[in-house]
Please model this.
Amino acid sequence: MGQRQQHLVDELITHELYIDAPIDTVYYYVTQPDRWSEWHPSSLHADTGLAGSLPAGHRFSETIDLLGLQIQMSCRVLVAVFPKEFKCVFSSAPVDGSLHYQLRKYGDGTLFKRTLHYSTDLNLSSLRTRIEQLSERALANLKHTLEEAAR
Model:
């Protein structure tokens, strides 16, 4: 009693891309959850209580759009290793998981890998497809935003 049951769905979604911007710039931007709404269509708002990149151990809240529903997420930064890695875990009533960013210098730019792991009790066949589409759009937005700023 008091323990959460096994989730119906457990998914891992990974995307990688090259961003023509310095690794320090990419890391600093993506490790500010209060700026995620600038490039990720599902992120509506984040309250971090800090300006700038978040350190390991820091807690924050984020409101996301999950298939038209506004979901309040409780989040905690697990890993913050400048400029190469950032990982946070999140929890809410319908979905739990983690978001992991790994960065590597490549020439004058950055190889950026984003891994989303989520578990949910929602039995929606279209959820993974929709999340993949939004993730692809988010990373295209991120690439465009950072490359335009680097010019």
In short: The chain has one domain: 9-150. The chain has a mean pLDDT of 93. The two ends are 56 Å apart (CA to CA). The beta strands are 9-19, 43-47, 59-66, 69-81, 85-91, 95-106, 109-120.
